Amino acid sequence: MNQTVVDLLERNADHAEEFESRFDDVQDSQHPAVVTVCCSDSRVLQDHMWENDEPGHVFTCANIGNRVCQRTDADEVVSGDVLYPIAHTGTETAVVVGHTGCGAVTAAYDAITGDAAGEPAGIEHAIGLLTPHLEAGVEALPADVSRTEAINQLVEYNVDRQVAALLESEAVPDSVDVVGVVYDFQDVYAERRGEVHVVNVDGETEVDALRDIHSEIAARIERRWEY
């Protein structure tokens, strides 16, 4: 057997021993408090970033670029992965989680600026879902911005666009709170790697306004780019 799989099974045995009794209340149904939409980057520790060890508490979705939409024959709609807990389990909080140095945002930036390399069709499709939402952001970037800073500014811009898509969708009730954050493991926002920084709450992106409205988390509200 592949040694990686052997190692995974050994870790799962430890997990099963620790968690065996934690599924009693959620074996037959789930009512997660929040649905998170993360990038599937292996460095983004979806549950562990919240120190979540409670089955049934966080409904996690992941894809490259933390996208909330999918394309149908008729239109672009909120992805069923994201919408399911909102529509069926009473979940009333959605958190879009971008991350510093995002490869999908980088690929979309390169596609928009004409520097894209060829990709397999599936990756091209995923990046193609991002690029229309980021084009205006690329055009608005400061002229003297470095490539690294441009990517991290667009990470925030992408989070904003995904939050907007949820807020504008008729399939998402107005009662659902939508928050956008960035997970930092590259010392972009602070020296504490792994910290989450709030950049958008229900469409509000102005830092001072957010800090006034949400004073209890003022220290966690920060942006690289207020465009």
TrEMBL record:
<feature type="binding site">
    <location>
        <position position="39"/>
    </location>
    <ligand>
        <name>Zn(2+)</name>
    </ligand>
</feature>
<keyword id="KW-0456">Lyase</keyword>
<feature type="binding site">
    <location>
        <position position="102"/>
    </location>
    <ligand>
        <name>Zn(2+)</name>
    </ligand>
</feature>
<keyword id="KW-0479">Metal-binding</keyword>
<keyword id="KW-0862">Zinc</keyword>
<dbReference type="InterPro" id="IPR001765">
    <property type="entry name" value="Carbonic_anhydrase"/>
</dbReference>
<protein>
    <recommendedName>
        <fullName>carbonic anhydrase</fullName>
        <ecNumber>4.2.1.1</ecNumber>
    </recommendedName>
</protein>
<feature type="binding site">
    <location>
        <position position="99"/>
    </location>
    <ligand>
        <name>Zn(2+)</name>
    </ligand>
</feature>
<dbReference type="GO" id="GO:0004089">
    <property type="term" value="F:carbonate dehydratase activity"/>
</dbReference>
<dbReference type="InterPro" id="IPR036874">
    <property type="entry name" value="Carbonic_anhydrase_sf"/>
</dbReference>
<comment type="similarity">
    <text>Belongs to the beta-class carbonic anhydrase family.</text>
</comment>
<dbReference type="GO" id="GO:0008270">
    <property type="term" value="F:zinc ion binding"/>
</dbReference>
<dbReference type="Pfam" id="PF00484">
    <property type="entry name" value="Pro_CA"/>
</dbReference>
